[in-house]
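Feature request disguised as a bug report, sorry. It would help if multi-protein outputs had a clear separator. Right now it looks like this:
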Amino acid sequence: MLAASDIFAGPIVRRSSPPRIAVWLATTKPVELDGLVRKAGTAEWIGQTTTVDRIKLFDGLFAYLVQIAPTAGHFPTGTLLEYSLGTVGKDGEADHSWFKSVVAEDGLAYPGFELPTLYLQAAGAKLNVLYGSCRKPHDIDGGDNDALAYGDSLVLNNVTTLAARPTILCLAGDQIYADDVHDATFDAINTVATKLEGSTPEKMPNGATVPGRGQRLKWTTDKAGFTSGEAANHLVTFAEYVAHYGLAWNRRNWPTVSVAKEVVSYRDGLPAVRRLMANTPTYMMFDDHDVTDDWNFSINWAAQVKSSAVGTRIITNALAAYWIFQAWGNDPKVSARETPHMRDALAKRLTDPVELETVVGTKSTLNEWEFQTPTIPVLYFLDTRTNRGYKDDFKRADGGEPAFLKSAAAWLPTRDRLNKIVDVQQRSVPLVLVTAAPVFGFETIDSAQMAVSGKIVPTSYFDLEGWAANRAHLFLFLTLCRDHDVVVLSGDVHYAFTSTASFAVFDAAFVRGAAARVPGMTLPGVSGSTATNAHLYTSRFVQLNSSGTRNSVGGWGKTKMMSGMANNQGESGYMFAGNPMSPEPARFKNGRLYTPITVMGVTVWRERDLADVQPNFVYEQRINDPGNTRFINKHNLGYAQFLGRKVQNGFLVDGKLDPSNSTSFDFGSGAAWTPAAP
C-alpha cells in the first residue's frame, strides 16, 4: 500500500486512446502497480493492466508507466471513464483501497467522483485542447497566479459536459526553468535533491565542485559553456532536475517552511495543477529552459558546450529528467523500445555516465523526440531544439546565430510523418502542429529582432531563436507545408495572441531550385522544364499562441513598449522575388498580384503581371484585427476547439474564458485570409 506522502509526483494521465490508456506515477517506495479503468459511476472494470514499466531513479524514488487495455474491444469514446491504481501483494492480489484514500486526501478527483476521470474523443466530436508553455515559479509580473491552474477550473465547471470539457492538455515547452531559479525555489530544490541523493551525491567531471546558491552564473559559463544570463542558481545534477519536477507537480514536496512571496501563489496553486493533469491526457515537449536558456541556439553554441565535459553532463541530466517526467508517456509504443536502455543507463549513472549521455544523445540524433496525438485532428509536436542546422543550412558554412530550428535533414522524416497524417485525415480537418515558438509573430516585434540578427550575442536582450530570425528556414518550413490548411499551437514569447497568415507559392526558377535541394520534395502544379511564373498554390495558417502560463514579457515598461508595438500592427503582405530576395509590400487577391505606389501622399494599388515580376512567394498576415485576439500580457492558458475545418479559440485569463478574446476560424471559407486591400 501507498500513502499520500509516498507519492512524489502524479498520477498523470498520459497518452490515451480507445486501445490503451497510460498513467504515469512516481513514488518513494518500490511497488508492483496495477491499473483498472471503468465507465464512471459503474462497478464493472472494463480495462486492466497490460504493461507496467518501472525505473529506479534513486534508492528512494521510482517512476512508473502503467498501461491499461480494454478487457474486450476498445474503450468507449464520448463517455466519462475513471481509473484506479493498486499495488500487487505477494499473494498476487491487487489492493486499490489506498488509491481511493490518496485521491480523497489530496483532492485528485472532481466533486461527485471518488476517482480521477477522463474521456476519449468520439468520432465526429469536437477536440477540446488546452495548450500553454512557460511556467516560471517566481514570475508575478503577469499576475500573482498560475494560469495552468485555470485549466483545472475549466474542467471543474464542465466535469460531465464533454462538449466543453478539455479532451487533452498540451504543454509546449519550458515546463521548468532550469537556469532562472529563484533563491527560495533553489533552497527547496536543494532540500529535495539532497534527500534523493542520500550518501551517493553525483560527482562532476574532472573533479569540478558545484557552487551553492547564487554562485553558479560564472561557473556554468566557464565550466559548461552556457550563455544564460540568469544562471545564478542554475540546476546541475540529475537530482536537482528531478527535484524541480517534483516541486512543479506536487505541493507535498515543498518544505513546510515559509517561502518568498514571489513563489507562494505558484506553490499554493499546485493542487489544482496536479488535479488537472490527473484527469486530462497530457502531452509535453521541451524548449530551452527545460535544459538551459539558449540551448542549441546555434551550431557554434552546441559545439562549444559539447566540448565541455561539464556542459555535456548537465544537458544529459536535463534530458534524462525530461525523458522520465515528460517524454515518457507521450507515445508508449516508442518508449517501449527505449525503456530498457534508460533503465540500465540510470542504474549505472554514477559509475558510467557516458551510457546515459549516449541514450539521450542517440534519441536526439534520430529525431525521435517528436510525436503525435491519437486524436482528430492529429496534433504533431515538433522538436525544434535537438536537430538544429546551420544558419545557411544548405551551404553548411555559417555556424553562427541563429540556427535553423530543424536542419534540412531533420525535416525529411518529419515531412514523411506529416504526409502520412494528411493522407489519413485528407482535407476534412486542418494539419495541427505544436511548436515551442510562434511561426508567425508580430512583425513590428520580429523585425526589431531580425535587424540585430547575427550582430549581437545570444545572451542579449533580444531573442533571436524564433522562426522569424531566419527567413530561409521559415520559407523552407512554409514550402514543406505545401497547399495544406495548418493550425500552429505555440508559446515561448510570454504573451498570447492569434493571427492568420497565407503563403502563396509561384512557379519561379528560385522556387524550383530550392525544392530540388530537398530530397523527395515536389511542388503541386509544376510541369515541364521551364518556370512559368504561375501561381502554384497557397497555404493557409492559423497561429494560436499561449504564453506564459506563469511568465510574462516583464515589468511595466517593457510590457508597455511591446504592447504598443503589437497594437500598431494590422494587415501586412510582402512579395519575395528574385535571388537574393528582398521583401516588397504586396497583396495576392483573387489570383491577382498587386503592389502599392504612392501618388501625392495617397497609396494606390496597381495590378502586376506575374511574368514581369516573377515572384517566388507572397506572404500575408492579419494580426490584431477584429478577427484576431489582441496582445495579452497576463498569465494565460489557451483553449482551442476543433470540429471539421472550423477552429474556435479563447484564452483563460484571470481564471476564466474572456469572451472578448474568443475568435473563430473556418478553413471552409477564405474570409480570414482574404486581404482587405486593394
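(second protein starts here, but nothing in the output says so)
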Amino acid sequence: MFSVLRNLGWFFRREKKRYMIGLVLLIVVGVLELLPPRLLGNAIDDIVRGSITGTSLVRYIGLIVLLLLIIYWLSYIWMHKLFGGSNLVERLLRSRFMNHLMVMTPSFFERNRTGDLMARATNDIRAVSATVGFGMLTLVDSTVYLSVVLLAMGFLVSWKLTLAAVLPLPMIAVAMIFYGRAIHDRYSLAQDAFGDMNDQVLESVSGVRVIRAYVQERLDEKRFSDITEDVYRKNMAVARVDAFFEPTIRLFVGMSYIIGLTYGIYLVFRNQITLGDLVSFNMYLGMIVWPMFAIGELINIMQRGNASLERIDETVNTRPDVQDAVSPVQIKDPADIEFKNVTFRYPTSTIDNLSGVSLSLSQGQTLGIVGRTGSGKSTLLKQLLHEYPTGSGDILFSGVPIEQIALDRLHSWMGYVPQEQILFSKTVRQNIQFGLDNADDDTILEAISAAAFRSDLVTLSDGLDTLVGERGVSLSGGQKQRVSLSRAFISNPDILILDDALSAVDARTEAQIIENIRQERAGKTTLISTHRLSAVEHADLIIVLDNGLITERGTHQELLNQGGWYREQYERQQVENKLTE
C-alpha cells in the first residue's frame, strides 16, 4: 500500500527540509491539542471540590486561549508546508511527464491513445500529488497522533478505561485492508475508462465535420453515451466501496464511546477516577474519531495514488525506440547525404517498406522522390528524421552514420513539412514564428512571399493576427500548407524536406513556390516527394519508388528518355493539365 511513498522517495529526499518542518509541527500541534481537555478536567475537579477561585478560573481560560492561538499559528505553517509540497510534486511530475512525451518516437504514440495519455497527465498526477499532501497528513494522524492521544488517555486518566474503550478499534484495521484492495483494483479500471472517454471526445471534436457530413450525429451521441455510462458504472463501483469507510469507522467508534462512557461512570462511582478525568477522557475519545477516519482516508488515498503512479510510471519508464548517441560526433554542416543499401521495416509492418535503397546527395542539390501511393516516399524522407530505429544499411551525413549524430543537432538541420499539416490554435504570426522565435514582421512576410501566401493574407480578417482555430480549421487546405511552408522557410534550414507539401495548391501556385525555392535556397539541400511531377522537374536527381525499391533514377530528361513509369505519368499529367486549361 505504501509503495507509492517509496517510489516518490526522490521527491521526499529533495524536499526533506519542507517535510521535516511540516511533520514536526504537525506532531507538536497534536501534542498541544491534548492540553486543553486536561486543563478543562482540572477546572471541573476544582469546581467539584469547591476550590475554584476567580484567579484560577482566569488562569485556566487564559492558558486555553493561549494554547489555541499557538495551535492556530503552527497549524498554518504545517499546512503550508505539506499542501505546498502536494502542489510542487504535481508540477514536477507533470513537467517530467510532458518532457518525456516530447522525446518519444512515433511508434509510442501508435501504441498509446491520446485520451489515455491526457488522463494520466491530469487525474493520475493529481491523485499522486494528493498522497504527498493529504496522504502525509492522514499517515501522521492515523499513527503518531492516534498513539499520542491513546498514551494521554492511559497516563493522564486510566489505563483500564483506555484498554476497554479501544477494544472495538482493531476491527477498523481489518475492514480497511479489505476495502483498500477493492479500491485499488476498481480505481485502476475507472481511470482506464476515463482515458477511453477522453479519447472518444477528442475524436468526436476533431472529426465533427466528417460526422456531420455523413449524418452520424445520433450514432456518435449513442457511442459517447455508452462510454460515459461505462465511466459512470466504474466510478460508482469505486464509490460503493468508498462509501463503506465512514459508516464502518462510525460504527466501531460509537462502540468505543458506549464502552468508555459506561465503564467510565462505573469507575467514577468506585472513586477510581474523578468526574474531571471522565470529562477529559470523553474529550480524548472524541479526538481519536479523526485518527480513525484518517486510517480509512489513508488507505483510500494511498491505494488511489499507488494505482495512478503505476500508470504514470508505465508511461515515463517507456524508453524511446531511438536513443540519443552516447558520444555524438560533432558535424558543423551536413555537406552531403548518402543512403547505402538501406532496408527498413516499420515495427507494425510484415514486409520491408524500403529495400536496398542507395543514393547520394551533395550539399545544395535537390532530390525529387516520386512513385505510386504507398511506394515508400514518406518512409524514405522520415529516415532522415531518425524517428524509427534504423534498419540494415547506413544513412550518412558528411560520412558520419546517423546513429552517431545527436538528435537535437540532426533535427536542427531540418525543415520538415509533412503531408498532414499541424497548425496550433494560435494566430498566423505565432504559427510561423514557431520556425524562428520572435521573428519580426518583415522576416515573416518574406517567408510568406516565398510560400506564395501573401495574396491570401489580405483575405484573412485580421491578417497576421488571424486565429487559425484548432489544427488550422479556419483555413483551407492550400492555406494550411502554405502557412506550414512559411514556417519551414523562415528557419532557413540546411535541409528542407517537403513531403507532398504542395498537393493542395493549384499548378500555378505550385510553380511559383518551386521557383521561389530554387532562388531562395541556392546552396542548400532540398528533398521533395510529390505526385505532381512538375514539382521536381528542376531536381538534380529524381528517383522513382515502387514497393520500397528504386526502379528508376536520373534527371527529368534522363527519366523521360528511359520511357518507364516516370515518362508515362508525366505525359498523362501533361494531357490533364491541357484539358484543365
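Even a blank line would do. Unrelated, but nice: The mean pLDDT is 85.
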